[in-house]
Specification:
The protein has about 450 residues and is an all-alpha fold. The protein is built from 19 helices and no strands. Helix content is about 75%, strand content about 0%. The protein starts with a helix and ends in a 47-residue tail after the last helix. The C terminus is likely disordered. It has a single domain, classed as Growth Hormone, Chain: A (Up-down Bundle), CATH 1.20.1250.20.
C-alpha cells in the first residue's frame, strides 16, 4: 500500500478534474482545440520556409506575432478586469476560428504570399492577446486555492499533449494531403473550445469591475513591480525563452541533418513536446515544491543544457532525446511559474497580471524565434541553437543573484485534502450554464509574497 501511495504521488494530481465539472469541460475543450492550433503553427512555419528557404523569414514570423501579443495583451488586461471574461473569450475564440479559416482559404487558393501569412498570424496574435489572459483567469474561480499547482500541472499537461500530438499529426497530414488541410482542421477544432467556455457561468470580476484605461494598466504593472517574486518569475521565463527558443531553426536543421522530410520536421517538435508531456504526467513532486522560484531557475538551467545537447546532436535519436529533456525541464518551469503568479494575485488584478504573464509566456518566445533566426542566418543553425542554450543557462544564474526574492520565496504549505462536497450553489441565470462553481480567492502574500509557452 505504501508503494502504491508513493507511485501515485509521482503522477499529476487530477483532483481539479474530479471536483469541478466546469473545469473538466474547459480543460478538455481547450486541449482538443490546442491540437488544431499546433497544426496551424506547423503549417505556417513550413509554408514560409518553403516559399523563402530562409530561417530569417521564419524568425520574422515570430516578430509579427510577438509585437501584437505583447502590446495587445498588456493594454487589454485592464479591460479584462471590468467585463464578463466568459463573454470576452467566446467572442475572441470565434475571431480566432475565422482567422484560421482565412489561412485555410489562402492555402487552398495557392496565393503563396509571405506578407499575407505574416498579417493573418499577427491578427491571430491580436485576438489571442485578449483571449488567453481572459481564459487564464478562469482557473482560480473553478478550483480550490490549494489545488492551483495541480490545476497548473493539468493545464501544462494539456498544452504538451497538444504539442506532442499536433506536430506529428501535422507532418502526416502534410505528407498525405498538403499543409492546407492543417489550416482547415484547426478552424474546425475551435468548436471544442467554444463548447468548453459556453457552458461556464458568468465570469465577471468579483469586485464588480474596476477602472479601465491607462491608469488601470499602470496599476497592474505597478502591482507586478511590487511583487518581486512575480517579477522574477516572469523575467526568468522570458530569459529562458528569448535566448533559448529554437523552433525557427527546426526547418533548416531538419534539411541540413535529417533529409528535410516533413515527417522528421514534425517529430522534432514532437520530441520537444514529448518530454513536456512526460514531465507533466510525472508532475506530482513538482506541484509540491515549496521553493517554486528556485525550482524555476533550476529548470531553466536544465532547459538550456538540453538545447546545447540538441545543437551538437548529429544522430536523429540523440536530437530527439535532447529536445525531450529540454521539454521536461520547460514544463516544470511553467507549472511553478503559473502556481506562483496565480497564488499571489487577487481577483481584481487577475486580468492585468495574467495579461502580463501571457505577454511574457506567449510573446517573448516568438522574439526568441526571431533571435534564433537572425543568429542562425548570420552564422549557422548550430550556432543559433548552442549560443541560445548557453545564454539561457547564464541567464538563470544571473537572475538568481540579482532577484533574491525569487530564490527565497516559499509557497504556503502543501495542498489540502479534498473536502466532502457541500450544498450545490445557485444556478447562473443563463439557461445553458451549469450551477455556479464555488468562487475562490487566491491567497494574498502568504510568505513575504506568494506565488513555458503559448497558451
Amino acid at each position: 500500500m505504501r508503494r502504491v501511495k508513493i507511485i501515485r504521488r509521482l503522477f499529476v494530481d487530477i483532483t481539479p478534474l474530479r471536483e469541478s465539472p466546469a473545469y473538466r469541460r474547459l480543460w478538455s475543450g481547450n486541449m482538443l482545440s490546442s491540437v488544431g492550433g499546433q497544426l496551424t503553427q506547423y503549417a505556417t512555419i513550413l509554408q514560409i520556409f518553403l516559399l523563402t528557404r530562409s530561417s530569417l523569414a521564419v524568425g520574422l514570423l515570430g516578430l509579427a506575432v510577438a509585437v501584437p501579443t505583447v502590446l495587445v495583451s498588456v493594454a487589454g488586461g485592464a479591460f479584462l478586469d471590468t467585463a464578463d471574461r466568459r463573454v470576452i473569450v467566446l467572442v475572441t475564440t470565434s475571431g480566432q476560428a475565422a482567422l484560421s479559416a482565412l489561412l485555410a482559404a489562402q492555402a487552398f487558393a495557392g496565393l503563396g504570399q509571405v506578407w499575407l501569412l505574416y498579417c493573418l498570424c499577427a491578427g491571430q496574435a491580436v485576438v489571442g492577446g485578449i483571449n488567453a489572459p481572459a481564459r487564464a483567469t478562469f482557473m482560480p474561480r473553478l478550483v480550490r486555492p490549494g489545488q492551483l499547482p495541480a490545476g497548473a500541472a493539468l493545464q501544462t499537461l494539456s498544452m504538451y499533449a497538444s504539442l506532442t500530438v499536433g506536430p506529428a499529426a501535422a507532418g502526416l497530414i502534410t505528407a498525405a494531403a498538403g499543409l492546407r488541410v492543417c489550416y482547415l482542421v484547426d478552424a474546425l477544432s475551435f468548436g471544442f473550445a467554444l463548447y468548453g467556455v459556453g457552458r461556464l457561468p458568468s465570469m465577471r470580476p468579483q469586485a464588480g469591475g474596476g477602472q479601465s484605461g491607462l491608469r488601470a494598466i499602470r496599476q497592474g504593472l505597478a502591482f507586478v513591480g511590487r511583487k518581486r517574486m512575480i517579477l522574477g518569475a516572469l523575467v526568468a521565463d522570458s530569459s529562458a525563452t528569448f535566448f533559448g527558443m529554437p523552433m525557427a531553426l527546426f526547418p533548416a536543421i531538419n534539411a541540413e541533418r535529417f533529409g528535410g522530410h516533413a515527417e522528421t520536421l514534425g517529430l522534432l517538435t514532437t520530441a520537444f513536446a514529448a518530454g513536456g508531456i512526460a514531465g507533466s504526467a510525472l508532475s506530482g513532486p513538482v506541484s509540491r515544491v515549496r521553493r517554486q522560484g528556485l525550482g524555476m531557475l533550476v529548470a531553466g538551467t536544465l532547459w538550456g543544457a538540453g538545447l546545447v545537447a540538441f545543437g551538437f546532436a548529429g544522430a536523429f535519436w540523440l536530437a530527439f532525446l535532447a529536445l525531450a529533456a529540454a521539454g521536461a525541464a520547460d514544463v516544470s518551469s511553467v507549472v511553478l511559474r503559473t502556481a506562483l503568479v496565480q497564488a499571489v494575485t487577487p481577483d481584481e488584478f487577475q486580468g492585468r497580471v495574467m495579461a502580463v504573464n501571457y505577454a511574457a509566456g506567449g510573446g517573448v518566445p516568438q522574439l526568441g524565434n526571431l533571435r534564433a533566426g537572425i543568429v542562425g542566418g548570420l552564422t549557422s543553425p548550430t550556432v543559433g541553437v548552442v549560443s541560445g542554450g548557453l545564454t539561457a543557462v547564464a541567464g538563470a544564474v544571473v537572475i538568481g543573484l540579482f532577484i533574491p526574492a525569487l530564490v527565497a520565496y516559499q509557497a504556503p504549505g502543501a495542498p489540502v485534502r479534498p473536502r466532502e462536497p457541500g450544498p450545490r450553489p445557485a444556478s447562473d441565470s443563463s439557461p445553458s450554464a451549469e450551477p455556479e462553481p464555488a468562487i475562490h480567492s487566491p491567497a494574498l502574500d502568504p510568505s513575504p509574497e506568494s506565488g513555458r509557452r503559448t497558451g
